[in-house]
Fold this sequence. Notes:
Largest interface: C-D, 59 and 60 residues
Order of helices and strands of chain C: EHEHEHEHHEHEHEEEEHEEHEHEHH
CATH architecture of chain A: 3-Layer(aba) Sandwich
Shape of chain A: globular
Number of strands of chain C: 14
Strand content of chain A: 5-15%
Largest sheet of chain C: 7 strands, mixed
Strand content of chain C: 15-25%
Number of strands of chain A: 7
InterPro entries (chains C, D): THDP-binding, Transketo_C/PFOR_II, Transketolase-like_Pyr-bd, Transketolase_C
Number of helices of chain C: 12
Keywords (chains C, D): Oxidoreductase, Thiamine pyrophosphate
CATH class of the largest domain in chain C: Alpha Beta
Order of helices and strands of chain A: HHEHHHEHEEEHHEHEHHH
Strand order of the largest sheet of chain A: 1-2-3-7-6
CATH superfamily of the largest domain in chain C: Thiamin diphosphate (ThDP)-binding fold, Pyr/PP domains
Structural class of chain C: alpha/beta
Radius of gyration of chain C: 20 Å
Protein name (chains C, D): 2-oxoisovalerate dehydrogenase subunit beta
Number of helices of chain A: 12
Strand order of the largest sheet of chain C: 3-2-4-5-7-6-12
CATH topology of chain A: Rossmann fold
Pfam family, one (chains C, D): Transket_pyr
Oligomer: heterotetramer
Bound molecules: thiamine diphosphate, magnesium ion
CATH topology of the largest domain in chain C: Rossmann fold
Number of domains of chain C: 2
GO molecular function (chains C, D): oxidoreductase activity
Distance between the termini of chain A: 60 Å
Distance between the termini of chain C: 46 Å
Amino acid sequence: xxxxxxxxxxxxxxxxxxxxxxxxxxxxxxxxxxxxxxxxxxxxxxxxxxxxxxxxxxxxxxxxxxxxxxxxxxxxxxxxxxxxxxxxxxxxxxxxxxxxxxxxxxxxxxxxxxxxxxxxxxxxxxxxxxxxxxxxxxxxxxxxxxxxxxxxxxxxxxxxxxxxxxxxxxxxxxxxxxxxxxxxxxxxxxxxxxxxxxxxxxxxxxxxxxxxxxxxxxxxxxxxxxxxxxxxxxxxxxxxxxxxxxxxxxxxxxxxxxxxxxxxxxxxxxxxxxxxxxxxxxxxxxxxxxxxxxxxxxxxxxxxxxxxxxxxxxxxxxxxxxx
Amino acid sequence: xxxxxxxxxxxxxxxxxxxxxxxxxxxxxxxxxxxxxxxxxxxxxxxxxxxxxxxxxxxxxxxxxxxxxxxxxxxxxxxxxxxxxxxxxxxxxxxxxxxxxxxxxxxxxxxxxxxxxxxxxxxxxxxxxxxxxxxxxxxxxxxxxxxxxxxxxxxxxxxxxxxxxxxxxxxxxxxxxxxxxxxxxxxxxxxxxxxxxxxxxxxxxxxxxxxxxxxxxxxxxxxxxxxxxxxxxxxxxxxxxxxxxxxxxxxxxxxxxxxxxxxxxxxxxxxxxxxxxxxxxxxxxxxxxxxxxxxxxxxxxxxxxxxxxxxxxxxxxxxxxxx
Amino acid sequence: xxxxxxxxxxxxxxxxxxxxxxxxxxxxxxxxxxxxxxxxxxxxxxxxxxxxxxxxxxxxxxxxxxxxxxxxxxxxxxxxxxxxxxxxxxxxxxxxxxxxxxxxxxxxxxxxxxxxxxxxxxxxxxxxxxxxxxxxxxxxxxxxxxxxxxxxxxxxxxxxxxxxxxxxxxxxxxxxxxxxxxxxxxxxxxxxxxxxxxxxxxxxxxxxxxxxxxxxxxxxxxxxxxxxxxxxxxxxxxxxxxxxxxxxxxxxxxxxxxxxxxxxxxxxxxxxxxxxxxxxxxxxxxxxxxxxxxxxxxxxxxxxxxxxxxxxxxxxxxxxxxxxxxxxxxxxxxxxx
Amino acid sequence: xxxxxxxxxxxxxxxxxxxxxxxxxxxxxxxxxxxxxxxxxxxxxxxxxxxxxxxxxxxxxxxxxxxxxxxxxxxxxxxxxxxxxxxxxxxxxxxxxxxxxxxxxxxxxxxxxxxxxxxxxxxxxxxxxxxxxxxxxxxxxxxxxxxxxxxxxxxxxxxxxxxxxxxxxxxxxxxxxxxxxxxxxxxxxxxxxxxxxxxxxxxxxxxxxxxxxxxxxxxxxxxxxxxxxxxxxxxxxxxxxxxxxxxxxxxxxxxxxxxxxxxxxxxxxxxxxxxxxxxxxxxxxxxxxxxxxxxxxxxxxxxxxxxxxxxxxxxxxxxxxxxxxxxxxxxxxxxxx
Lengths: 323, 323, 337, 337
Ligand SMILES: Cc1ncc(C[n+]2csc(CCOP(=O)(O)OP(=O)(O)O)c2C)c(N)n1
Ligand SMILES: Cc1ncc(C[n+]2csc(CCOP(=O)(O)OP(=O)(O)O)c2C)c(N)n1
Ligand SMILES: [Mg+2]
Ligand SMILES: [Mg+2]
């Protein structure tokens, strides 16, 4: 295996953080302490982790409504994210954005986005910045299977091809757009092929396999960083939970979900393979698990206790100056 | 040749009408008598004619800013069209639509459209009507090469595939979107392949060859009418004139245009082939030419002399009732 | 008379119209719910808010049509179907999403009748969800209807209670012009006496929710009940406040408003939308133009501020007008000399 | 001082800013013109109206970027580039096309600063063409800026002459918030004295085009010169008319308007946009709220009717306000007792 122990531990910790963040967030949501919507990333962790492993703070990502995992992978502090999903004054967006708008520009995280397909054109814009400035930075758009049908996304792909921009379109095919299955909503059923027809390399990988995502992304970044234009990667990784918390999921079977948890847990798959192929042991991972759980619990508890925004904040930051 | 003489004469007359309508319209535009914009269809006549040869008044077409040819092929009366491009009171739209909005609902002509890509979703809607009512009618969207990049068009294709609608996407690849070449603006350069990736049969034909368009459309309508879902056809037929009258065309060479007029005139190509392969003669076609010219000149002259709308018309037909 | 929530009233209106007229179809994201999914015989969830629940089961997939996430194609498909004779109801899940699809409504459907010289309009309804109060954040909470009202060719309906919602929706479905029907997400649970049978409320007729002779309050959508609350509280202080609910903002029932202003000479307009170029501005400007001679005080607008809707529930509570702010405005115009 | 058309003034403003700041780029359909075409060394046509002519030749393809027909991607690319530090100028060829791409402006660029808690705004300009008068028909002639002004987070500029256009555009490019810069197609050819050098006009400062003590006319965009024409004609009849050009409608210079109203007590607002939820309504409602004590007559709005723009030039001439209609309105508020 071509990874250092450090790299493997980091990847694992990232995914475990994601899992804990959303599971604890869910607990809080069900307890009524967390406002807004809660979209779980469970089952898809390997995508965000495998993709962002190739990025520095100077690279860009533009995310979705299901964005917590992307934020964590891109290096946002768990504490600041927790404050934001609780909409507290010291959150990354001072409580004005909330779960669906976490952004951290110092980290190259250009925002979760509550408009399906909204972030693809923005990612293309960040790629334009990279190209215009002559850097080798890349810009990633995360796009759901549902979002893959949105006109903005097709336009973004075409423009990236035409301008040969260092943009990478990462499709997170988790099987559903809200309650609607991908086999129904996606014309050809083949998201990657559709992207490929725009004239860019198009990969399709198992999104529950960290290493598969990592490999595809290694190729993609090399291509994009060297000025050859955009790439797309379709990652298939069914979600474990409903569209958002509160979705009764009457449209899928309990067996489907049980099977996913048992056989397609990206974190377990990672762990098993790494233990089989490297010197890392169960206890190495158990230690990370414990540390991560404590870390996330603490961040969430602190966030829950943190001060709310002041009423006057309602009126600030609409413009820099306006008069 | 599998066509009756009547069919061949009709096809030729349709194309000749289109040519005359736009050439005379252009003359009037340059003389300052015609308001608005003038988008010439010259060079592309075989597309509209070949496509609409398969349609009855109960089938639908949704057109573009370059829509005169489509209207003629779909059976709009030349007289009523002429009145409309002169924005006269008795025009098809009583002068409120003008050249870019000619519509004739009795003929299944759902409107030219001044929004690029605007008509594709509308055509899908008409196809939905056909399917919901259980008829075997089809609905055609005409789409330029430039329009092929618009998000609305991709969405329309996908929805038509998902709902298995009797929609036919006819791409008129005339080489340019305004001043921008198709090789530049279309990511893959292959419009048909992009359509095919949505999961529908995708044809690509020489759009200056009436018979090629006719054949592709025969297959397409059979497919769509029998409930098998949408089809796309890319027709390649470079335009002879600028984007609109007034475009100096500094971006292309005089030789390119001369070559088109000489070697890729769809009307001449049709005529030569039919004379070679059937009993029809030069003089048959000359007769149609003369008759068409007279017909169109007369319609244009009548339109130019016809009464303008009344000022009170400004306020009518915004709503059926509004109070 | 049975009690119904606004959610049920809206569902019921669609059900009755779909039974009555086979040309009425429903199209949108998850309006059935669960299409293409492993469980086949699923009870139609009917969208994220359950407003269309059960319609798929009654009317089947030919008339209750789930779509991909493709708002332009949904609106365009509805417009094209309407142009060819159907009566589609298209759902725009959150009105905030109009920005990805507005061309098909504003340049196409809204203009057909006019630009085609009266040949045909688009008899379609767009049902859409508006408003703040659920902690849904800046892109899912807007009251964007002033933009719809600005557009000639569109009609815009803004029901404030279940009874009105049912009658107005039935009317909208039968109307031959495109209607944007704005449902406030915080009103879905509100109950009202609603007849089982079909009835229509004409578009362009305001409802005088409350008579009053000192001050006229014109309130829109969710603001109506807050205005009534404020008016009732002020009764004790001896201020008699009329509350008018226009119910449809395009067309706007100018006469009912002006009649009341003639009596009171004092006006407060309450609108959850942001203030610039809003219905609050429209109504105030109509009054200063056509009711000036009656006016005895400045027209006060109580609206959201010129800001996006914040995600924080604490800030969101400051965002939309409250009964307290409405009361203060009523008192101030009442006291004006 | 040289004479420049508004077309030249706008071109010049971009040229100066692009020379000054390498982060300023221009992106849109045919802003270069001729890309991907057989003739390689073509002089950049600079769009259908020639407004960006020559910029491609000076600044090259990295900074003057032709695009496919893809407004959502253009606006999104500009927003994303702005969010990452560039200063893009994006061209929306006709403002009428906002309906296919507005989400990227109104939900994205306009809200970045607020919903990201002040981290960063989108320092971008959208240049776009508005207005009736060229016989361009219902989908290419609209004055759709009230919709832009409604949106918190956007600024909206509406120059009425070449001098203002240059100074306002330079200011807009340097502004750190998204600015929609609305160019009236019928003003491109209008000439003015315009300095060669760079200068800025602050956003939010109206221009008093003409002093007057009897009636205040607030006129927008192309309406300014018609208002001046009307005012001059009425001088003979002894009516002294002030004409105010807000120049930017968001932010709106409320003080300059109210100062004049304090003197005159009589107001006409002239706006080419359709009337409902328009800037005419906004300005009238602002006056009845904040200038009520000065008002001595109804505020008259002279606007387009609530209809689409007809293609027929004969009807189009009836559509937009004329000097005659403005005069009549001035006389009527002047005569009001
Ligand atoms: C433009 C737009 N349309 C619809 C929605 C409502 N919506 C939110 S998430 C969602 C499903 C998205 O599906 P997908 O892209 O597959 O992402 P996933 O939720 O599966 O991660 C929908 C329809 C939205 N937010 N924006
Ligand atoms: C949404 C939109 N964007 C831009 C335009 C301006 N415009 C009108 S025609 C045209 C070029 C269209 O090219 P194509 O689709 O190839 O059609 P053609 O003119 O070649 O027939 C453009 C950019 C428009 N009318 N609508
Ligand atoms: Mg999904
Ligand atoms: Mg073309």
